[in-house]
Protein: HAD hydrolase, family IIB
Organism: Olsenella profusa F0195
Amino acid sequence: MVGLFASDLDGTLFGLTHQAGREVLSSVRMACDSGRHFALATGRTVRSSAAVGFGDIPVEVVCANGAIILGRDGSIVHHVPMDPAFIEELLVAFPELPLEFVTLDHTLERRSRKESEAARLRMSLVRRIVLRGMTRDRGERLYGQTPDDICSQVVVKVNYRTEPGDDEVRERLASFVAAHADQAVNAPFSRRMFEITDPTATKAEGVAWLARQLGLANDEVAVYGDGGNDLSMLRRFEHSYAPRGALEEAKRSANVVIGSNVLYAVPRHVKATVRHEGPFQVP
């Protein structure tokens, strides 16, 4: 029986709005009410489940690609710091890039608020809508941070979004990360993103850590994902599912391909599993 559901958000659990709508919330609440646990497994930086629309539903959160794990009460129960030496070297090697440094409390940017907002205005409308859904917490971002400011914090993830025509920058940054494979790994949800964490911080490791804390075996975990940062998770667990619109590699990595996220295939699958298996008693 499944005792823990873990699902990616954008492109998987969420529909076109990239938000927790009625269908999503009813499935997650049904899973929790049945005695099971539900974890949001996302590359997003989530400070509380309420901030992404889950209200008082008692979910866990495996966020920042497994670098931060929140318990049901919203407290940080586990985190994986990046090597400070790597962060310092990265700052020296790429002083011109608007990298985002995720810490346990904030997301730090070297550019100013004005520069950051101007960059967002240059994005497509669809992308701006998606980002608005991802960054609801006021005070989350601290701007104008110096290298010393950043190096003084515990950094768990580095984000960077490339733009069309940035092939040379993308190759330089990818080569830099590859040359530091013992200190960092890039597991982005799309080719245009860099989502850099410690090599031991992945969604797969995060969900597995949570399952162990709950006393659950891997075959009591069901995972759902659609992007490049979901591959390790989809390969790790026997009960792994990818929606129809997932990346081809994600669909190959999953054991089962289900319907479209636009039609809420994941929430429906969660409900069907709970109905079929009945109540679950977590050890």
User: Anything to note?
Assistant: The first strand starts at residue 4 and ends at 7.
